[in-house]
Amino acid sequence: MTEPVHRGSCLCGGVRYETTALLQAASHCHCSMCRKAHGAAFGSYASVRREHHRFVLGQAMVRTYKSSAQVTRAFCSRCGSPLLWHSEGAHADWVAVPLGTLDTPYETPPQKHIHVDSKAPWVVIGDGYPQELQG
Length: 135
Hints:
Blueprint: E1 6-9, E2 16-19, E3 24-29, H1 32-38, E4 43-49, E5 53-57, E6 62-66, E7 71-76, E8 82-87, E9 94-98, E10 113-114
Parallel strand pairs: 3-10
Antiparallel strand pairs: 1-2, 2-5, 3-4, 4-9, 6-7, 7-8
């Protein structure tokens, strides 16, 4: 079995996961779905190939919600923590992990903001990272 690179969990600790590869393509997503799923100004995610992500505890507590035609989100049924999302489209082999659920250090901060055309009007982005529109 491959040694975990990252470990993460939900708020209540009932669900735990591991990745066995480095997380990639970290970003802050400002789309309305990510904002609502996180209850925050944006969701911060990084991606890993699906075969390198596994739930190691509490898989029976994981529920899914199809938030759009292409995206399915997974969350803890006890505490509501977002655990991942994945697309059925061009990136179906990848899952996006919310960086806030990591229990291990993640050394590479998100380097871009995406879907900024949907950002909350009270958010000012001032970190200098690139900003991408939805389209």
